[in-house]
Amino acid sequence: MSSGGVAPTYFALQTIFGNYLTAVGEGGKYENAIHTDATSIGQWEYLRIVKCGDLGTDQQYTIIPADDQVLTAVNGGGLNNADPIVRGYWPGDTPDRQWARFKLLRQGDGSYALQTANGINYVTALGGGGQVQQYFRPDCGWYGACLASFSRIFHTDATQVLSWERFRFVDLGNCKYTIQTSSGFYVGIFKDSSGTTLLTTRRSTVTENETFQLVMYGLASPLVLR
Known about the structure:
Elements: E1 12-13, E2 20-23, E3 34-38, E4 59-64, E5 71-73, E6 85-87, E7 102-106, E8 112-115, E9 122-125, E10 135-136, E11 149-150, E12 154-158, E13 168-171, E14 177-180, E15 186-191, E16 197-203, E17 213-216, E18 224-225
Parallel strand pairs: 1-18
Antiparallel strand pairs: 2-3, 4-7, 4-17, 5-6, 7-8, 9-12, 10-11, 13-14, 15-16
């Protein structure tokens, strides 16, 4: 369902008789796995409908890393300062903005540009990839703002597609994708020594942390697929 009133990544499936499809035990079963007698939407009725196969072009997707947090372009794009791309929804996002959606525009070489929600800007992998995000603890001195920050490995202020704005999405055959930068490195997540989950564009091998699910934006409104 939605988080903070913004882009949903889970949906409910309603039968023609008005009941809802249930994944018993939230899934993971071989027998007695599906029920169709639910009359309300609970946790077991939350279903994520992910993209498989060819991504096409000019389609909008919510991009979900392995930790199940969406990627969000803060302010809908247009930033080159701290936190242009974050994991999770950002305060100030609203249903009419939907910052956690990206339009994938296929380029002539088979790569994709990621256009942000403002319809103007594109995601840039700084240096064409090969960057590792850092977390800077807050400095809570007497006269300073007590704010944490992150180093930048992405920008979202590009207005044209050059080499650093090109990403290759590789279908792994299980409805998950890798995202490869122009330098050949993969985008992924990791935990630093403090346990903070961060982003990286410097992975040369693929594990679960370098995989992403994509949910097509705008599948249903209200959030029930019939």
